């Protein structure tokens, strides 16, 4: 049996594997079975939008009023237990999500009680056509709806409490559905004999290992135990590449990391102060040293960066580029001018009203590259006379504080998505700033009506040029007001071993995003593109 | 030494003492360490308490010193029941009755200097002494027990002294508060023969000079006779014989006393090998025990002996014996 | 009952305790012999070196003790030079030991029977298990403890019984010499008497020699045939037991005799011995007893007297007064 | 007898109290003290030894030891030498603080239980046993995470609160045996106050046990602080030997060949531990002179061997 | 017997205290289990879903009701459901982790105890000799080393550089647990370095403990008597001295179980060994109440059981304790 071709990939750290393959269980299982066993309707190719991969749907159509989308489903697809896949399964899936709110299936179902959510209903047009009705006109809804993973109605209809369902024998339509050789330390997901991919699919099984900690994970790849990783690296040229001739990595820039500051209180409510903050930070050092040279610079103070390079209007933003350059003298000048001077001679600057300034940069325990960055920032700020210190805390506490709004500043990631809309919407949606339920992305809590308007306009057109125009408006508003202070772009972690497989995504051939984690629907395409090297 | 029987300083009147031996809540056993003990201490005289190990001698002394309360009966100091003493009166009583312990190695704190040991009682009980007077008093005391030059000793710690010297310090400390009663619990048992007499002689001198009432506890009947005018013999918490020391040793009447005297090494004879008796263990005296405790070993025991313990019989000149078979 | 044949001769025995910063000469060149069937006593106050002599005799000197000179001769062979094999036979076959405190001499976690039989197994393996057991039963009967208690543990016996068990162990192999280092000091006088009488009886039956150590002169005189009186690591007098009290030669012996109040006669004041023994690490010149001796002369403070035989007393003594 | 190398006791020790004299003439103990003092001084006087700030970058990342950076720099470019020096303040502070606090709590509880006996003893002993039985480190981890971030102070407090079981136990046993000593009874009968008996009569006799508890507690606390920081439950902003190890490990110092990032804090901990162990050896030997292995005994053995004899007993 | 009964009463009481502490301690920690689950969606939830999740993963009822429920659960040996590995029963994870910790710590304790004790016996017997003067201090100093550093160095040197030993795990991934020699061999091979790293820092304590107790005993009369009886060295050393010296060692052994279980945590972390320590750290980070509780309880219980066993061993080995 060991002539099988097995691809080992590591999408999630854990202490022990559990025998659970519930595609919507976020504590691990969905990393294993989404995309591979359960297919979505549509796979967007974010890096090459003109080359999407239709999955369970073959086409979609957005209504002119942007109030609905209709999907044509693929005919002749069978579930791995031999049953046919059809529109009933999709409708069932929608209704099931609606019925089980505590079992989030990734569908933003509209709920009357709270007036939240965007998808109002799913209509069966015929056996292979489904129409989703939206609450508001939304040109972007296809991105989310394409990500629905239909469940087989004949299995799930009987499951009363889906969140507690272990789904030990997953039934899906994807290329690998058969669970084999389960143990606490490894599990395999093997070929679905009914899969339509079988002709092109060279890989018999996917193997997932129990691994934990970057050191262990990297060592495993060097030893040939793992082929595909998305783990954090430290000095990869020393600690990773030399360990094995097959070790490779590529870290294209991902979403931005920002300093979220609480603009509801002094001194962060002062724009001049925020400008000073921005120029006081030495991003070169952060990129080169604090984050080991693995992150990339962001050119403009817009809260997003190179991941959405195609949406950036360089010319319009050029006047704001200075805000991203390290200039402590300028920072002090700005602070002095705005009245932030050391009034009580304690060595630290005060607010214009004389109250002392001292604030914390909150970072969860163990997020070491962020802690390093935070420490560099606090050094920079101390250099210009601002009493800023890093405060690390338990992740639970960190989560809590963010929601209650009880903080000075956080280092914070940005949400990603197919368009920058997915980043800006959570960042400026007023619903995310409500007292007591502040969203991580909106921690700055500054309402910018021009951004809100532009977001609405963006959503209500499917026209790329119109969207581009709105995006520029958003960029300008953000750069003008500095609700968040941009720091750097996170790397997209991607390591692969050429020991057993070829056909990997490379910088030269970036045919899909090479991310191994769930949430990147393209990963199944990546896996299917790999071919074993015969040695 | 014929003197009108002075009023006793200390009087133990039919004192019982029970200790809890352990056991769970319900079936606790009570060890009867003392049963109906009556003793009197008189100024200028010493009473020796002799008896086997564990017979309750120390318990007597400790009760007089106030370390334990009697289970029944009373201990009176100049007629006052000492269990009623509280606060200041108790504190004063503590200076009136002093104890010298058996173990010269254990009764001085190894971490404190000799000076400290003498200074504490003075500070506690001699408020009249101020400043330099304390120091002088300490020197006088040391000289009084024959530790000369006294000043040398103040700074030393107990381990720098020999056993005899330590025991002298302990005596000096007991005397520092000018007590009326001195309780000496085997003050020489840990000492070498050559210094033992020195201590006994010292105690004898003090007893006479200060007109002390002394209780001398020992199991060495020879030294009891040497030091004390009167002797009381204990067995398993009972007084079995009491009287002038010479009478006890020359004419022991209780079988236990006889056995005891018999057992004392005597250089004037050779050991006979015609043994018949064999020492049995001292019985464990509990609440339920009856009769004479010595019955298990007594050659003369009769049936009455295991039924009841007779009261004291006076056989003249203050010599009392508790035995059915006189 | 004792013959005049020496069974063990101690010649010029010297034992030192080596400290970090000093050497204490606990035994300083002493000479004596123990005759066959004799009870020889070593008396003297605490710390004068009695136990040290006894342990050296049994080849049990504990570190940091060091037998730095002299001989212990058994039938002409020097015990101190015995090799391992000879030593094993010497120990317990020829010399056995009864310690001061039976409480500590028995291993608390091993049944008493095993503590008796293991010595038999070691020295007379031919007896086998049953033989050893039978011997243990015999021994228990000999010292008057019911044999059914053989398998009990030490803590289940009273002090006197434990001491008797120790004696039983000492008798296990019928040794020629039994060393008894204060075998009864921890006991009550009545029990003490009982045990001593028992020893006397067994000794009469088996005829071994005894080296008896105690500081109770009265007891010693009662028990022993001859007595050596030690002072500060030296023998100051060796005399027949009767002579020790009645006709002491050495002032220390006399003083010692005077330290025991009598049980009879009028109550008179006795004087003990003033002062304390010298520190072994810095000894006085001359006679070691001189500083405490009421009769000390000039010569006493400069020259140490030697042990000499005084035929009229049948005693040996070391004192200038006698010359 | 020259082979036995007997030296005269140094004269100046006669002026010290005997246990102190025993300590200062104990080579193990004194080397421990000297090493420890050196480490403590090094930490206290840290600013004199280094012009860098331990919290700030002082140079390029991972500079190998050189003139400018005696022990090199960390991945973040902080000066290792400076961090070791300043880190010592906190590590030793936590260690000694928690060690002392645990020993003091243990002392108070142990003495009270032992001296007062009865109900008091039953209750206190129960708690001592519970503390002894509760799993140490895991509990510390849980408690430490009660507060958002476990800084050195928190770790110290938690260690103190969970570490007093052992000392309390030994001290109670010791008190029980001291309480039966006659000098305690004698002080009671003298009318001394209870607290005075505890502090003046009992406590001084317990000094060596207290010391030993303190030393062992300190070692345990230093190690526990290091362990907690190492697994990332400490405050990574604090500079302690434990967090230095944490960062070295996180930045893969071993893998990148930057041995100088990991060895100095590791050695500092080991050296401190070793020094404390030596002090504890000395304390043990003073309480119980038998334990002193004594070169003497070895020498006597040799002495006898050379003469064809062997030591009779041990 | 009474002695054992008294101990049993103590254990019951201690158990109850531990149960109670274990309940309250995790609950005073900030944050609750649902936060981690919500966070793991990285903002892909709408509010209704967030609320639904809070309601169904969070805790319900008053503290007192929770406590009663919890005590009931403990008595039924039902430890609830893990939220880190939802919805795996805590007990199955706990059992898994405990098994491997037991392997690791069991081997390590056994070896540390045996090696340390034997060395201690040897050192005490030849007190002042070469072995004693050199190894006693060295071994004890090893005790003061940081387990973290030792583990790290071993891992780096023997797993990463020399590659003599595996990178982690309790056994090779291809094997499934069974009692066949190949699997056991593989387990031992994987356990070597983790065990070694615990061993190195722990055997010194046993060495010193045994040595000190032995030395004190060597001067006891009963040992001298054994010598005087002409018994062989071996017999005196083991039957007369070591036999008695082992008693306090056994008591410490029981008390050290807790310390060792705690100490294994760092080792498990470094060697990716799937023991309780690793699970605990994760559970704490994610506020997995049921796991933390169950884990603390298990630890406490194992220490209690160890103590109980040592009490029994003491009664068996020490006749003085048998009565009363
Ligand atoms: N505090 C106590 N608790 C329980 N029993 C005690 C206590 N003190 C003494 N006893 C018991 O009381 C009995 C008498 O003891 P006591 O110390 O008075 O005897 P003693 O005659 O002084 O003996 P020794 O000659 O050994 O000193 C003994 O059996 C002893 O065990
Ligand atoms: N291990 C030792 N180290 C140093 N000195 C010792 C040691 N053992 C004994 N001594 C000293 O040797 C001297 C003789 O001791 P030994 O035990 O032989 O006296 P003893 O006559 O038996 O006294 P006791 O009647 O008290 O048993 C004493 O001064 C003692 O201090
Ligand atoms: Mg007494
Ligand atoms: Mg002796």
UniProtKB/TrEMBL annotation, chain B:
Q: Could you tell me which SUPFAM superfamilies the record lists for this protein?
A: P-loop containing nucleoside triphosphate hydrolases
Instruction: Provide the membrane topology annotation.
Output: Peripheral membrane protein
InterPro entries, alphabetized: AAA+_ATPase, ABC_transp_ATP-bind, ABC_transporter-like_ATP-bd, ABC_transporter-like_CS, Oligopep_ABC_C, P-loop_NTPase
Whether ATP-binding counts among this entry's keywords is: yes
Q: Which Pfam families match?
A: ABC_tran, oligo_HPY
Give an example GO molecular function.
ATP hydrolysis activity
Any idea where this protein resides?
Cell inner membrane
Q: Which sequence ranges form a coiled-coil region, renumbered to this chain? A: none
The ABC transporter domain sits at 10-261
GO cellular component, alphabetical, reads:
plasma membrane
Alphabetically ordered keywords of this record = ATP-binding, Nucleotide-binding, Transport
Gene Ontology biological process terms, A to Z:
peptide transport; transmembrane transport
**Can you tell me which family this protein belongs to?**
Belongs to the ABC transporter superfamily.
Q: NCBIfam families attached here?
A: oligo_HPY
Per its record, how is this protein called by name? Chemotaxis protein
Q: Which organism is it from?
A: Devosia chinhatensis
TrEMBL record, chain C:
ABC transporter domain location is: 8-257
Q: Which UniProt keywords apply?
A: ATP-binding, Cell membrane, Membrane, Nucleotide-binding, Transport
Q: Which residues form a coiled coil?
A: none
Q: Where in the cell is it found?
A: Cell inner membrane
Q: Name one Pfam family in it.
A: ABC_tran
Q: Which GO terms describe its biological process?
A: peptide transport; transmembrane transport
Report the GO terms under cellular component: plasma membrane
Membrane topology designation: Peripheral membrane protein
KW Transport (keyword) present: yes
GO molecular-function annotation terms? ATP binding; ATP hydrolysis activity
Q: Does the keyword Transmembrane apply?
A: no
- UniProt xrefs under InterPro entries: AAA+_ATPase, ABC_Ni/Peptide_Import, ABC_transporter-like_ATP-bd, ABC_transporter-like_CS, Oligopep_ABC_C, P-loop_NTPase
> PANTHER family given for it?
DIPEPTIDE TRANSPORT ATP-BINDING PROTEIN DPPD, OLIGOPEPTIDE TRANSPORT ATP-BINDING PROTEIN APPD
| Similarity comment | Belongs to the ABC transporter superfamily.
Protein name (Swiss-Prot/TrEMBL) = Sugar ABC transporter ATP-binding protein
Annotated organism of origin: Devosia chinhatensis
**Source organism phylogeny:** Bacteria, Pseudomonadati, Pseudomonadota, Alphaproteobacteria, Hyphomicrobiales
Automatic annotation (TrEMBL), chain D:
Keyword Protein transport (UniProt): yes
User: Any one Gene Ontology biological process term?
Assistant: protein transport
Segments passing through the bilayer: 29-49, 90-116, 123-147, 153-171, 202-224, 262-283
Domain ABC transmembrane type-1, first and last residues per copy: 88-280
Name any GO cellular component annotation. Answer: plasma membrane
Where does this one sit in the cell?
Answer: Cell membrane
Report how it sits in the membrane: Multi-pass membrane protein
What are the boundaries of the signal sequence? none
Principal localization?
membrane
Provide the family line: Belongs to the binding-protein-dependent transport system permease family.
Instruction: Could you list this entry's UniProt keywords, alphabetically sorted.
Output: Cell membrane, Membrane, Peptide transport, Protein transport, Transmembrane, Transmembrane helix, Transport
Query: Does the record bear NADP in its keywords?
Result: no
Q: Which GO terms describe its molecular function?
A: dipeptide transmembrane transporter activity
| Identification of the protein by name | Peptide ABC transporter permease
Which superkingdom, per the lineage? Answer: Bacteria
TrEMBL record, chain E:
Q: What is its main location?
A: membrane
Highest taxon above the source species = Bacteria
Pfam families assigned to the protein according to its UniProt record, in alphabetical order: BPD_transp_1
Family, as annotated: Belongs to the binding-protein-dependent transport system permease family.
Alphabetically sorted, this entry's keywords are:
Cell membrane, Membrane, Transmembrane, Transmembrane helix, Transport
Record has Electron transport as a keyword: no
Q: Indicate the segments forming the ABC transmembrane type-1 domain, all copies.
A: 98-310
Looking at the UniProt entry, the stretches that span the membrane are 7-25, 93-119, 140-158, 187-208, 245-266, 296-317
Organism from which the protein derives: Devosia chinhatensis
**Location in or out of the cell:** Cell membrane
Identify this protein by name: Peptide ABC transporter permease
Topology relative to the membrane, per the entry?
A: Multi-pass membrane protein
Question: What biological process terms from GO does the record include?
Answer: transmembrane transport
Query: What's an example GO cellular component term for this entry?
Result: plasma membrane
